[in-house]
Amino acid sequence: MQVKVLNNQSLLDVAIQEMGSAEAAFDIALANSIDVTDDLQVGQILQIPQAASDYIRKQTVNHYKINNIKPATQWQET
To answer: Helix, strand, or coil here: 66?
Structure first.
């Protein structure tokens, strides 16, 4: 599965949005050869590996999708 990074999203935001769990960020980082703390670029495509599904929280993912919630907590310097 692939996901496109939105404005101000961190890897933790993507992990929570797609898998419902911050723990999945480590597998996503590994699959994309990045660090968990790396800044992501808007439009960047991330691979969501099968291993990340070990952390999936379906209720959280469904809640985010049903309510069109797109977490974006990355602090941005102005």
So the answer is: helix
